[in-house]
Design a protein that fits this description.
Structural class: mainly beta
Number of helices: 2
Radius of gyration: 21 Å
Distance between the termini: 54 Å
Strand content: over 45%
Order of helices and strands: HEEEEEEEHEEEEE
Number of strands: 12
Helix content: 10-25%
Shape: elongated
Largest sheet: 8 strands, antiparallel, barrel
Length: 214
C-alpha cells in the first residue's frame, strides 16, 4: 500500500512539474501549453464558434444590467508573435443570432428600433492596430473599425492572452478574452434613450484554432 501511494505521488509530481500526461501504459503526451505570447505558434487561425461569443450588458431602466450574447461569431486571426503589430483580426457577427433569454426581446432586436437585420444582418470588425502592453506581454490594445447598421466607428478593445497549445483532440488553439465599451447611439440605435442605457459593455471570449499551412 505504501509503495502504491509513493508511486502515485511520484506520478502526480511528474505531471505537475513536467507537464506530462501519464496513463497506466506510461507517458503518452507532453503538454505544450504556454502562457508566454512569444512561444505561440505563428500562422492563420479561425475562431472555434462553439467557444467564441460576445456577451453584452446594458443598463435596463437603471434597475439592473441586462445581459445577452451573440453566438455563431466567425473570426479570423493572423498571428505573428515575433511582430505582434503585424497581426490582424477580422470578425463577422450575425445579428440574428442574438440570445437575450427572451424570445420577445430577441425579436424586437431584429427590428429597425435596434439592429434592423432586414437591411443589416451582420456586424463586422476589422483591426487597424495591435499594441502589446510594454509591462505585460499577455495584454494588448486592439483598435479597429466596427460596422453596425451600416455605420462604421472606431472601437478599442483591451485583450488578455490566456494560453495556447494542444486542446481536446490535439487541436492547437490560442485563447483570448477581450473587453470593449461602445455607445449604441453612435451607430444610430437611439430607441428608448436615455432610460435604456446608451453605453454597451462587451466581453469577448475566443478560442482560435491554428489552420494548416497552405
Amino acid at each position: 500500500m505504501h509503495s502504491m501511494i509513493r508511486s502515485t505521488a511520484l506520478a502526480l509530481a511528474l505531471t505537475v512539474s513536467g507537464g506530462v500526461l501519464l496513463t497506466a501504459g506510461g507517458v503518452v503526451a507532453r503538454a505544450e501549453l504556454t502562457r508566454t505570447p512569444a512561444e505561440v505558434r505563428a500562422g492563420a487561425y479561425k475562431l472555434d464558434s462553439d467557444h467564441g461569443k460576445i456577451t453584452w450588458g446594458v443598463s435596463h431602466l437603471g434597475f439592473s444590467t441586462y445581459f445577452g450574447q451573440f453566438v455563431n461569431v466567425q473570426a479570423e486571426l493572423v498571428l505573428d508573435p515575433a511582430n505582434p503589430s503585424a497581426s490582424r483580426l477580422t470578425a463577422t457577427i450575425p445579428l440574428t443570432d442574438v440570445d437575450s433569454n427572451s424570445d420577445g426581446l430577441d425579436g424586437h432586436l431584429q427590428t429597425a428600433d435596434f439592429f434592423d437585420t432586414a437591411n443589416h444582418p451582420t456586424a463586422t470588425f476589422v483591426s487597424r492596430s495591435i499594441t502589446v502592453d510594454a509591462d505585460d506581454p499577455t495584454e494588448a490594445t486592439v483598435v479597429g473599425d466596427l460596422t453596425l447598421r451600416g455605420v462604421t466607428r472606431p472601437v478599442t478593445m483591451e485583450v488578455q492572452f490566456n494560453q495556447a497549445g494542444p486542446s481536446m483532440g490535439g487541436v492547437y488553439k490560442a485563447g483570448f478574452d477581450g473587453e470593449a465599451v461602445i455607445k449604441r447611439s453612435d451607430f444610430g440605435i437611439s430607441y428608448a434613450l436615455p432610460v435604456l442605457g446608451d453605453e454597451v459593455k462587451l466581453h469577448i471570449e475566443g478560442e482560435f484554432v491554428l489552420q494548416p499551412s497552405a
